[in-house]
Specification:
Largest interface: A-B, 33 and 27 residues
Distance between the termini of chain B: 45 Å
Strand content of chain A: 25-35%
Largest sheet of chain A: 6 strands, antiparallel
Number of strands of chain A: 16
Strand content of chain B: under 5%
Number of strands of chain B: 0
Oligomer: heterodimer
Structural class of chain A: alpha+beta
Distance between the termini of chain A: 51 Å
Mean pLDDT of chain A: 91
Largest sheet of chain B: none
Order of helices and strands of chain B: HHHHHHHHHHHHH
Low-confidence stretches of chain B: 229-233
Helix content of chain A: 25-40%
CATH class of chain B: Mainly Alpha
Radius of gyration of chain B: 21 Å
Shape of chain A: elongated
Low-confidence stretches of chain A: none
Number of domains of chain B: 1
Helix content of chain B: over 70%
Order of helices and strands of chain A: EEEHEEEEHEHHHEHEHEEHHHEHEEHE
CATH architecture of chain B: Orthogonal Bundle
Mean pLDDT of chain B: 90
CATH topology of chain B: MetI-like fold
Radius of gyration of chain A: 25 Å
Chain lengths: 361, 233
């Protein structure tokens, strides 16, 4: 269990103060894949760096498993029976080694082989050479890179480099893995394979993963829950399904649209495409079908019962965490009262109705 | 020996002196070089870790080191040489000969080398340092296992450059009676109008510099991993 309470971090720059993280509170259950999404500069990177104290927050509390870390005025304390105790450099290092982290640019040591890179966190940790060797090969098997053991990073592809980085991050058996845009520098195939590996490790090892990204597709692929960040705050948080089915804030809606074929509607509207041109008695609507109503032929029922015509512009169904979400954008036409009644009928049947354009206004 | 006698008769007459001079230069180079290497490396690391955004930020230590390096670098070596005479006398007991030359040579080399080391270490990507921090590496681990380890090829290159410039400085040290090839070329060559001696000194120095550069390049190449070299070409 990771619990963050009122975490804040401000950078004092010459150009002024940047409040990178403002009073963020989150709780992440064990074994979850937790996504944090936001545009660059939203503070997600700082937030995740605060979790393993690479960045020392100004204030707040972090609980990771049994460790309770309290931050006051940029100082780090641990809470135990006796109260607060200041944490020294040595304990801080020990604390960090209990949390794995992977990065966008892999950050492997170029002058070390794959073996040496993975052995890095194990050496000088009191582990015997034989045990280090055994563990490195175990990790190589875990990420499926046994044949590359004596190769240098420059000879590996991006996806392979990230696999080495993952093996290295997991060397000390951390309970938590932080992933900072780990797939952003990879091609689509490598992205897919790294995400599959992360999901696999999550299941196999019960590893909690906190993953930050600016791509909704990544969230969709692996996350159980997601927090949306903007200007250093968490503006929305929930299960991935809920966030996709019911985005509350503008920024979340933008992210959801960016990863859905329905997002194309913005361009059609902008280009004044004939597809979305409507007259009196017509409305351009966006309907979102949740798992409760997918497969119930609600649209045709509404059409029949209220004498409405639907002309489909865009439609899509996808599976998120095993649940389907349907989306449909279309022009609906009919008499004024019928339109009203039909849309109310849809609403009552768990369909989220959004009128994008109204021909009567 | 016959060839030397025929083509460089003056050198032949002073050949023993020439050999002593070579060995004096060699001694100055090795002793001053070794000391400057250690001090420069330490100060270079100090600058990188204590600077703003460094892993052990310490503005006071940084400013002090930085100022020392800047001041020493600003003094022309020949002036530094005579400026340091009283200090050398106090520390080593004499200001002349090879012994007296070591301290000014170190003082003349360290600032230059420190800056070079600083640049070499700055070339290590911050991301690597951050990754090592996330794995629980402390200050010493970061310095030895990340900064110095990753910068080895760059450090070899800057060490080569510094070694070559140190050869230049040792010849100037002849001015305080340190001996060596520099003073041999002036005293027995130029002053006595023996051009052949000057020429041989030039060739000898050239060979040394060439050898240093070759060894440096070779080592730098060896320590960069192969795939990286291929990509660079």
């Amino acid at each position: 269990m990771i619990e963050i309470q009122n975490l804040s971090k401000t950078f004092h720059l010459k150009t002024g103060d940047v409040r990178a993280v403002q009073n963020v509170s989150l709780s992440i259950a064990d074994g979850q894949v937790y996504g944090i999404i936001g545009y660059s500069g939203a503070g997600k990177s700082t937030l995740v760096r605060c979790l393993n104290l690479l960045e020392v927050p100004d204030g707040g509390e972090i609980r990771i498993g049994a460790d309770q870390i309290v931050l006051q005025n940029g100082r780090i304390f641990r809470r135990d029976q006796g109260g607060l105790r200041r944490i020294g450099e040595r304990q801080l290092c020990a604390l960090r080694s209990g949390i794995g982290m992977i990065f966008q640019h892999f950050n492997l040591l170029d002058r070390s082989t794959v073996y040496e890179n993975i052995a890095y966190p194990l050496k000088y940790s009191g582990m015997k050479a034989g045990a280090v060797r055994e563990r490195v090969y175990e990790l190589l098997d875990l990420v499926d890179l046994r044949d590359k053991v004596n190769v240098y990073p420059a000879q590996l592809s991006g996806g392979q480099k990230q696999r080495v980085a993952i093996a290295r991050a997991l060397a000390n058996n951390p309970r938590v893995l932080l992933s900072d845009e780990a797939t952003s520098a990879l091609d689509p195939d490598a992205t897919e394979s790294i995400l599959a590996l992360l999901k696999d490790l999550n299941r196999k090892l019960g590893l909690t993963i906190v993953l930050i990204t600016h791509e909704m597709a990544v969230i969709k692929a692996v996350c159980d829950r997601v927090a949306v960040m903007e200007d250093g705050r968490v503006v929305e948080e929930g299960s991935v399904y809920e966030i996709f089915a019911h985005p509350q804030t503008g920024i979340t809606r933008r992210f959801v649209d960016s990863s859905s074929p329905l997002g194309k509607i913005d361009r059609l509207l902008e280009e004044q495409s004939p597809l979305v041109e409507i007259g009196p008695g017509q409305k351009l609507v966006k309907l979102i079908f949740r798992k409760e109503c997918v497969g119930e032929a609600i649209v045709t029922r509404a059409a029949r019962e209220f004498g409405l015509d639907f002309s489909i512009v865009l439609a899509n169904v996808e599976y998120l965490q095993g649940g389907p979400i349907g989306g449909l954008i279309g022009v609906v036409s009919g008499k004024k009262e019928d339109l009203k009644g039909g849309l109310r009928f849809l609403d009552e049947n768990h369909v989220t109705v959004e009128v994008l354009r109204d021909g009567d206004h | 020996m016959g060839i030397i006698e025929r083509y460089t008769p003056n050198l032949y007459n002073y050949f023993d002196r020439f050999l002593t001079s070579c060995s004096a230069t060699f001694e100055m180079f090795c002793k001053a070089g070794a000391i400057a290497f250690v001090i420069g490396l330490v100060l270079g690391v100090l600058l990188v870790v204590t600077r703003k955004g460094g892993i052990a930020r310490n503005p006071i230590l940084y400013q002090l080191t930085n100022a020392l390096v800047n001041v020493l670098r600003s003094i022309p070596f020949i002036i530094l040489l005579i400026f340091l005479i009283p200090l050398t006398r106090k520390v080593v007991g004499t200001a002349i000969g090879v012994r007296g030359a070591i301290l000014p040579l170190v003082a003349g080399t360290v600032p230059f080398y420190t800056r070079q080391v600083e640049v070499a270490l700055s070339g290590v990507e911050p991301g690597k340092v951050e990754a090592a921090r996330s794995m629980g590496s402390g200050l010493l681990g970061l310095i030895f296992r990340v900064y110095l380890h990753e910068a080895v090829p760059a450090l070899i290159r800057v060490t080569t450059v510094t070694a070559i410039s140190l050869i230049g400085l040792t010849t100037m040290a002849g001015a305080v009676g340190a001996g060596g090839i520099g003073s041999f070329a002036i005293n027995y060559g130029q002053n006595q109008n023996h051009q052949d001696i000057v020429n041989v000194c030039v060739v000898a120095l050239l060979l040394v510099v060439f050898a240093l550069q070759t060894i440096g390049n070779l080592l730098a190449k060896r320590t960069t991993n192969r795939a990286l070299i291929q990509r660079r070409h």
